[in-house]
Amino acid sequence: MIENNWNFRLKIFFCLLSTISIIFVILKYCSYGIDFTDEGYYLNWFSSPFLYKVSLSQFGFIYHPIYNLVDENIVSLRKINFLITFGFSTILVYLLFSRLTNFEKLNKIILSCGIAITSFTYLYIQTPSYNHLTLQGLLITCIGVLLISNINLNKNILAYIIIGFGGWLTFMAKPSSAIGLGLLIIIYLLISQKFKFRFLLISIITSFLLILISAIIIDGSIIKFFYRYRLAYDISKLLQSGHDVNSIIRLDSLNLSLKIKQSILFFFILSILLTYLEYNNSKFLRIISIVFSFFLFLFIFILSLFEINWNPNYGYYQPYQIFGTVFACMAICLLFLLQKKIKIKDICWDLVFLFLLLPYISAIGTNNNYWMQSGIASIFWLLIGLVFLIPISLKIKKIEILVIFVIISQVITSLHIKEKNEDPYRNNEPLRLSNTKISTNYKNHTIFISDEFGKYVQDARNIAAQSGFKKGNSIIDLSGRSPGLLYLMEAKSIGTAWNIGGYKGSLDVAKAKYDLVNCSDLANAWVIYEINNSRGISTDLLKNFGINFPSQYQLVGSWEVPKGAGGYMKNRVQKLYKPINIEQIINSCN
């Protein structure tokens, strides 16, 4: 058995230890850092999803039960989100190995976990969001695709039910991605000659029933649920943020930095070199390959377990480093095809087509650059490398090559995680330096954040408490960038989970959303206002409802916003206003 040689066993042991090291560092830093903008929006959304009447993504309703299950503990929620994605990724890769190889079960599990951990090249914010849910939906759909069988009826029915379930999750995350996914699956089934309408109908019915159940739970009827999307779509056009229906299907420019290009070349050469060392029958070269593998493992181990002051600094296109290994797999495959050591039919081209387009499907609908956004689902591109490499390794009986491929991929993942821990999204210092522990709610769950962020949150809490603010009271945030502060103050962010500023249509969107809030709730809401903030929401929002600001409010205090909060590098001052003469405000509003 080719899996029983000492060379393979030693390298797969390195692979296992690398996987454990990466899992350790991900779980460890679930307890660190918070972003007051995007992450605050996510937290407000799934902590009180039924508060909001318009939404294009329903991820808040999906994660709300999990949020309650972990007793509103952000750290536990992050860990479960990681384990969900990692679990689905592992199952998908395991099914791919099972389809293309006859490896021992334990070896398939170790290699699958090693590849699955690379799904965390998207680790910008660990708290669940529509991006996480989109990826999870795509992973589940692909699991169903790989389960399709031409001979086992029950397995086939299960496969198409899973595809329908994955499609529903993708729809709940991003309808635009769900539409693209549906078309892609149909094309894939036609290409792979597996298209059977009666089975596809199972997926369609499954998705439809789940959407129907979702509509009833969320809005009480399918009509109101449809209206939620229609109104959200109309309001989104007011924002003028780039979410234009006419530009949903597009091909953006790929602007890779010189550093990323050099890194792709480095991993390409490294993959080719280690493959050559394994392919050669020289015992000496195999020993060199083992030494290389050990040092790659050692690099991952040190990067994961030691707090080193070093930032790789590759930027948002860092996931594209995996193309170094993917291109190497393609080049090796081409060489073996030319030498007629493998045949064209040995490659599952239908899977290559599917995995190639899935990252693009995940990006459809975003206002970010599609190439950059596609990196979130770059694990599918990595699977293309496996599709090319597995037939070769089996033909030449050198499956150590696959382990090398996995370890190199883990190096890339480790670099990404290190970068995001050293330069966390919209935080003001590396996570390893954050040593201020704050409670995230009245249940005393805690996270570690920077001293400046800790003072910011504590000042806001103290001023609010001294002024009579109670848990669950409403706040209208006119700063345009502080939904996370509202969450940590245990305030209710009425109207919208994030009163987002900085766009041409921010005020128009705010007016439209708060128009759905009754006057009593508006009148009882406190107000956060930020001085000299070009990205804030104008006080015209309140005037639009007949409310005189600040004359109908009492200024109860102010606090300084530290540099780095919300991604802005200037200190600001925020003020908290308490409503007075609430009856008068209600009458003005009415």
What is the strand arrangement across the widest sheet? Answer: 3-4-6-5
Low-confidence stretches: none
User: What multimeric state do the chains show?
Assistant: single chain
What is the first-to-last residue Cα distance?
80 Å
Provide the β-strand percentage band.
Answer: 5-15%
Global Rg: 26 Å
Shape: globular
Treating each run of at least 4 consecutive H or I residues as one helix, how many helices?
A: 23
Number of strands: 6
Helical content, roughly? 55-70%
Q: Main beta sheet, described? A: 4 strands, mixed
Q: What is the N-to-C succession of helices and strands?
A: HHHHHHHHHHHHHHHHHEEHEHHHEHEEH
Average of per-residue pLDDT values: 93
- Return the structural class: mainly alpha
How would you briefly describe this protein structure?
By secondary structure, the chain is mainly α. Helices cover 59% and strands 6% of the residues.
Task: Explain the overall architecture.
There is one protein chain. This protein has 590 residues and is mainly alpha-helical. 59% of the residues lie in helices and 6% in strands. It has helices at 6-28, 38-47, 59-69, 74-100, 105-116, 130-147, 153-173, 175-191, 197-219, 222-239, 258-279, 283-305, 323-338, 349-363, 370-374, 379-395, 400-422, 451-466, 483-488, 506-514, 519-524, 540-543, 582-589; strands at residues 436-439, 446-449, 475-477, 526-530, 553-561, 572-579. The strands form 2 sheets. It has a 4-stranded mixed β-sheet with strand order 3-4-6-5. Strands 1-2 form a two-stranded antiparallel ribbon. A hairpin with a 6-residue loop joins strand 1 and strand 2. The longest helix has 27 residues, at 74-100. The mean pLDDT is 93.
